[in-house]
Design brief:
heterodimer; A: alpha/beta; Rossmann fold; 2 domains; 4-stranded antiparallel sheet; 9 helices; B: mainly alpha; ABC transporter involved in vitamin B12 uptake, BtuC; two-stranded antiparallel ribbon; binds adenosine-5'-triphosphate; binds magnesium ion
């Protein structure tokens, strides 16, 4: 059984069909990419999995559990964490506090205990810090631990958002354009981290990415989307050379460098 | 400039980040404890007043500064805290029990009211809660069987474990009582901030969407914040009524809500210190104003002067110092610590990305 399965999912915004009868399955341990031109419906697929939207038809299951039965705040409890295309951090809080919010689903103590700061709360806090500190080490965030998000450069925010998702120790990580707006070196780092996340942490990754170079390097499987519907699916090379994919890209906007779609 | 080398997790979790900070607050506590020896009863009464305002302000700060929800209805919860405390005291419930129970009652009622109210956002929430504050005035008059309506109630003396504390005979004890409540509330507040719930508050304030994506139940978190906020403000209301000697529906007029909001904005939204700095401003501004009018106007009363000045101060702060007095202090401190390396644009807000992916 696949870890994540979408079966004939359709979502409409008024007259616009943002996702059109889409079926896909992500296997445990994969790095799976969703690609497609602007407005193809990639982020909308993420928002469906996060339960921000409810599909008109179709089903979404995670590890055999019906995701559509859950409220948005219950989805992370399944072990699904995500980042956002336009970075949604808690900007008045520090990096450390942001990462600690990632631990929210692992909290154990109640309000009264927390107000009194009982020993159980302190023990819990130590555990949370331990988990968060591992993420900080992995992502080299030490220099920014106590900085507020509001003053941080874009590239660092992007990493913090990845860290916040990792801090929740997910089984499935949804990354919406992890490399957009990053410099060449930052993209390079992102590549190593995605590799690490899959290899050493055993986390399955579903990502949306325009940078086909990155997709080719880190992904096992790619699904191309246009106007909400599946165009092609396969290995990165297969999808990039698929005639429908080339047509979709040439028909809309970006022309590629050296025969590949960008 | 101080450097922080962190060697274990507890350094992040502790109430005070280092020995220096600890000594600073310890000194402040000693000062607060020794205050009755240093100033006469009149000024001690003023200090008590400041602390009472600070308690009520901490309540609203938790909701507005920490969780990002505005309320203009907190005068209603001060009234509820006060009336329920006094009614229980009149029914011979021991003061400590009546006082704490008044906080709990106010918190529960606040949470119940929050469930429908918090479906509203921003200015709509402000209007709905303002309506509540105005309504509270009428409800107090309508329930005159219990509240004595416009005639109001006399505050009963406080009987603390057989020890009577009246405002006029025991100003020192009154001060210590208030200080004890302040310390309790501040400690609870700080404890929440360093625990999952406090971080959930900040998450809801800064981005409801990603709070949800991290597993925070937004509606529930807001309701809890409203409840705790009302409980604290209710305690402040109870002390305010008891300290005033007598109170009626006018005591908890909706203008009190607006003063409370002004107080936390001027003090610095989102900072515990902000509630205290704001309380000082609120408590002393009337005095300063009456002194200046005495000086220049030879005792001619100007109607509405106080509200007018409050309003102008509020607008000036929103325009020029949205971080409040405490924010200003933080900037000055950083400037001094980094001197001469401070950069002028260090506190400028960065707008480095567009929010095009709107989900609501
Ligand atoms: N909340 C919404 N209400 C109405 N229409 C929406 C909404 N969200 C997205 N859409 C529309 O749905 C379509 C798919 O949007 P989506 O954001 O999923 O695209 P995308 O593939 O992520 O594109 P990009 O590469 O630009 O991020 C677009 O036409 C968009 O305008
Ligand atoms: Mg998108």
């Amino acid at each position: 059984m696949s870890l994540l399965e979408l079966d004939s999912v359709t979502l409409k915004f008024g007259g616009l069909t943002a996702v059109n009868n889409l079926s896909m399955s992500v296997e445990e341990g994969q790095v799976f990419a969703l690609v497609g031109p602007n407005g193809a419906g990639k982020s909308t697929v993420f928002n469906l999995i996060s339960r921000f939207y409810t599909p008109v038809t179709g089903s979404i299951t995670f590890d055999g559990k019906d995701v559509l039965k859950m409220a948005p705040h219950e989805v992370p409890n399944l072990g699904i964490a995500r980042t956002f295309q336009n970075i949604e951090l808690f900007h008045q809080a520090t990096v450390l506090q942001n990462l600690l919010v990632g631990r929210h689903r692992h909290r154990k103590t109640n309000m009264i205990a927390q107000m009194l700061h009982l020993p159980s709360v302190r023990a819990e806090e130590r555990e949370h810090r331990h988990a968060v500190e591992e993420v900080i080490d992995l992502l080299d965030l030490q220099p920014y631990r106590n900085s507020r998000i509001a003053g941080l450069p874009y590239g660092v925010r992007k990493v913090v958002e990845l860290g916040r998702a990792l801090a929740s120790k997910p089984r499935l990580l949804l990354l919406d354009e992890p490399a957009s707006g990053l410099s060449v070196e930052e993209t390079q780092n992102m590549r190593w981290w995605i590799d690490d996340i899959r290899r050493h942490m055993g986390i399955t990754v579903l990502m949306v990415e325009h940078d086909m170079g990155l997709v080719g390097k880190v992904c096992d499987r790619v699904l191309a989307l246009a106007d909400g519907a599946k165009l092609a699916e396969g290995t990165p090379a297969e999808v990039q050379s698929h005639p429908k994919v080339i047509e979709a890209y040439l028909g809309t906007n970006a022309v590629s460098k050296g025969g590949k779609v960008a | 400039m101080r450097f922080h080398f962190k060697t274990d997790y507890d350094q992040d979790i502790r109430l005070f980040e280092d020995g220096w900070t600890f000594s600073l607050y310890a000194a402040l506590l000693v000062l607060a404890l020794a205050l009755p020896l240093m100033i006469d009863p009149f000024f001690l009464g003023e200090a008590t007043n400041v602390l009472i305002w600070a308690i009520a302000g901490l309540g609203l700060m938790l909701l507005t500064g920490q969780t990002g929800q505005v309320s203009l209805g907190h005068s209603a919860f001060m009234a509820l805290g006060c009336y329920s405390c006094v009614l229980m005291m009149e029914a011979n419930v021991p003061f400590v029990v009546a006082f704490l129970l008044a906080g709990v009652i106010t918190g529960v009622v606040g949470a119940l009211i929050a469930i429908p109210a918090l479906k509203l956002h921003g200015v709509y929430l402000a209007i709905a809660t303002l309506a509540l504050a105005i309504l509270a005035d009428d409800i107090i008059v309508l329930l005159k069987e219990w509240t004595d309506g416009v005639n109001g109630k006399m505050s009963p003396p406080i009987d603390l474990f057989g020890y009577e504390i009246s405002r006029w005979n025991n100003p020192i004890e009154w001060y210590y009582l208030t200080l004890a409540v302040v310390l309790m509330v501040t400690l609870f507040y700080r404890n929440l901030l360093r625990a999952p719930l406090g971080r959930a508050f900040a998450a809801v304030r800064d981005s409801e969407i990603s709070a949800q994506a991290m597993g925070v139940n937004v509606a529930q978190t807001k309701t809890i914040a409203f409840g705790i906020s009302c409980a604290i403000t209710g305690l402040g209301g109870a002390l305010m009524g008891l300290f005033a000697g007598a109170f009626n529906n006018e005591t908890f007029n909706f203008l009190l809500s607006i003063q409370l909001l002004m107080m936390i904005v001027v003090g610095g939204l989102g900072f515990i210190h902000g509630a205290f700095l704001g309380a000082v401003v609120i408590a002393f501004l009337p005095q300063v104003l009456s002194m200046t009018t005495d000086l220049f106007g030879r005792g001619v009363a100007i109607p509405g002067l106080e509200s007018g000045v409050f309003g102008v101060i509020l607008i000036l702060f929103i325009l020029f110092e949205p971080m409040g007095l405490y924010g200003r202090w933080l900037k000055i401190r950083t400037f001094l610590e980094l001197f001469p390396f401070a950069r002028k644009d260090m506190f400028k807000r960065q707008k480095s990305y567009l929010k095009t992916e709107r989900l609501r």
